[in-house]
Amino acid sequence: MGAVRLFFHGQLQIRAYGRDPERFLNLCAGTGVTLYNMKRKEDDVCFVLSVPDFRRAVPLARKSRTFLHICRRSGLPFLLYRNRTRKAYAAGLLLGIFLLYFLSHFLWDIRFVGNLYYTDETIRDFLEEEGIQYGMWTNQIVCNDLEQAIRIRYPEITWVSAQISGTRMIIQMKENFSGTDSTEIKNAPGDLAAAEDGVITSMIVRQGTPLVKPGDEVKAGQVLVSGRIPIHDDSGEVVAEEETTADADVYAELSIPYVWEHSRYREERIVTGKYPCGISLQIGSYLLRAGRTGAQDGTFCLSETETPVLFYRFSLPLSLTISRAFHYETCMRRMTEEECQALTEKELTLFRGEIRAEGGKILREETETTMDENQIRAEGYFWIEKQIGEKVPLQEIVGEENENGISAGEASYDVE
């Protein structure tokens, strides 16, 4: 902030000398005169201060019998004074400011966030069909209508948000390819069945009739919580059943086998030469290429793209891409034992991450890694705790009734 203030107010490089310059500095500190970049040169003191502070410092210099010598002047006031007769310079400056302001009302950049299945080119082609393209007025874009059009055109996109920031439009989206309506499944009456074999460790039943208890061993497809709630009369007999959606957190301990195999030979690329750089310049929707800008057979390409941005949000309507292509040859190299161990541990870490991502908790694991001349093999078991309940359609409960009239169940559901 001090540098900006000095530029707009004008700054002076001062050399102070005289009988008592230290007293002058004390007076400046007491009256609030700000000195920048103060340095001592023999008996003199050099510093920088703004023009308003210089006017306040002159009486203090007289009082302390200190002489102030102006060594250099800079800043906006002096720049304008030196160029007061250059009308073309002033006109060009004003024209540049006007052009920046005028161009800031156009759309020069479109960014997509969250799209995995649909590529940027696919969505950008759809935007062009809707009349959204580079160089159009930003006030002609209605974000709400655009969001609705994207959801109608691509039903797999469950959520989309479009916003304009400066000259850039950012479209964020989430995709869903499950092909099921989660609302209908959630509200429909049904049971809660086991998705995998395991031993129940804990249960929290919020709705429905529990058919198992902690410690029971269950099979995949077995009903854990029934969606049928019996209604008793005053004598305790079941007179009716109410169908509801079974809801519970059922945790079970289960074992997962782990087997991973990989060749001990790895393909490596050896760079044998490189080509001159290729340059691509994109101006709006127009693309100009020079040199090699893409990978071909036997080559790989490294590209760096730069988009100039002014004032953080003002993206200019151009981007420069510099591509470097390298020619390579492939060869097979046998990995060392240390590399094999590192690769095995990396795969184990990924497998552990997949278990945790699915909501599982690893209780213990036993794995063994073997290596021969050509292959790496890791195998073992993971014992984990996770939720195994999944919603299924209502099933008939077959079995003997307990003292409350509730079947204790051999109800099951086929899990594909």
Describe the structure.
- The protein is α+β, with helices and mostly antiparallel strands and 416 residues long.
- Helices cover 25% and strands 43% of the residues.
- The protein contains 9 helices and 25 strands.
- The protein has helices at 2-9, 21-31, 51-63, 76-82, 87-103, 120-129, 143-153, 182-187, 337-357; strands spanning 11-18, 36-41, 44-50, 66-74, 109-113, 157-165, 168-175, 191-194, 198-207, 209-210, 217-218, 223-226, 228-232, 238-243, 247-263, 265-274, 278-283, 286-290, 299-306, 309-310, 314-315, 318-334, 361-371, 375-387, 389-392.
- Strands 11-9-15-24-23 form a 5-stranded antiparallel beta sheet, covered by helices on one side. Strands 16, 17, 18, 19 and 22 form a 5-stranded antiparallel beta sheet that branches.
- The two termini are 66 Å apart.
Write the layout of secondary structure elements.
Elements: H1 2-9, E1 11-18, H2 21-31, E2 36-41, E3 44-50, H3 51-63, E4 66-74, H4 76-82, H5 87-103, E5 109-113, H6 120-129, H7 143-153, E6 157-165, E7 168-175, H8 182-187, E8 191-194, E9 198-207, E10 209-210, E11 217-218, E12 223-226, E13 228-232, E14 238-243, E15 247-263, E16 265-274, E17 278-283, E18 286-290, E19 299-306, E20 309-310, E21 314-315, E22 318-334, H9 337-357, E23 361-371, E24 375-387, E25 389-392
Parallel strand pairs: 5-7
Antiparallel strand pairs: 1-3, 1-4, 2-3, 6-7, 8-12, 8-25, 9-11, 9-15, 10-12, 13-14, 15-24, 16-22, 17-18, 17-22, 19-22, 20-21, 23-24
Helix pairs in contact: 2-3
